[in-house]
Amino acid sequence: MVDIHPSAWVAPSAVVTGDVTVGPRSRVLHGAVLNGDHGAITLGVDVLVMENAVLRGRAAWPLTIGDAVLVGPHAHLNGSTVGDEVFIATGVSVFAGATVGTGCELRINSVLHVNSTLPPGTVVPISWIAAGDPAQLFSPDRHEELWAVQGLLDFPGTMYGASRDTSMREIMRKQCEAYRPATR
Fold first, then answer.
1. Percent of the chain with pLDDT over 70
2. Is the model's pLDDT at 181 over the cut of 80?
3. Domain limits at 94?
């Protein structure tokens, strides 16, 4: 059930479907997708979701966004919790089970990995990756150090309900089934 507060606005070209709540004075701009078909999405007060952002709730992890949050163009938020007064720049990815603390800033193309917690007030630099609980920050050239933390976070289990050794054929078969349109 979509619930849009009377003082909120959703662009006519945005897609809002499933269990989605848009709070007071919030704005969802053109081309944004808020997919609550498989889990709830809740936007607080004065949230701005910019063009072509993709927000997705998950059955095990609803997507909850606090008050006074900017979600930049082409950002991707998936089954996570975002505190108040957070800046999420263009192209940022926040994965399932992640928590963004109050007052954080995720700069252009940065990533907060699955099951990771970004403490309040943390700044993730442009194109850096935050992983762990509490999250450690990694520049893109520190893959081996990142993998030592990231490997423990169980990305395939969290995102796809699969072990790391599951074939892509099997993962995609299950994903395509999960995203099958509901029959009428």
1. 98
2. no
3. 2-153
Note the pLDDT of residue 183. 63
pLDDT band, very low/low/confident/very high, at 184 (cuts 50, 70, 90): low
34 assigned to some structural domain: yes
Name the domain count of the chain.
1
60 Cβ contact list (under 8 Å, min separation 6): 39, 79, 96
CA distance 16 to 123: 30
CA atoms within 13 A on the CB side of 39: 18
Domain containing 77 — which CATH number? 2.160.10.10
Hunting for tokens 């349109």 — which residue is that? 181
* Alpha carbon of residue 45 to chain centroid: 18
Asked if residue 24 has a cis previous peptide bond (ω within 30° of 0), the answer is no
Q: What is the pLDDT of residues 163-180, one digit of tens each?
A: 889 998 999 898 898 888
Residue 183 to residues 99, 179, 180: CA-CA distances in angstroms? 34, 12, 9
